[in-house]
Design a protein that fits this description.
Elements lengths: L4 H4 L16 H18 L5 H13 L2 H10 L9
């Protein structure tokens, strides 16, 4: 049995590269709400660092949804007639 990452690390930064993250205010609000919801589900504190990486990993598994969000932000738009 492999010991889960949460229990085999020395701290939340262990084994991770630092990546700057800039969020829009509504995304930051959603992140806060997701953190609270997941803490309620687990009945335990959830590290914000762990939550952020889990959100990225889930997004990597759902690129169609990521594509939809990027389209909402204007990706794929053309201004040709």
């Amino acid at each position: 049995m492999q010991i889960p990452y949460k229990y085999r690390r020395d701290g939340v930064q262990d084994g991770r590269d630092r990546v700057p993250l800039f969020l829009q205010s509504d995304t930051k609000d959603g992140e806060r709400d997701a953190l609270r919801e997941l803490e309620d589900r687990f009945g335990d504190d959830v590290s914000l660092t762990d939550l952020r990486e889990a959100l990225v990993k889930a997004g990597l598994d759902h690129l169609d949804e990521v594509e939809g969000q990027l389209e909402e932000w204007g990706y794929g738009m053309t201004f040709e007639e």
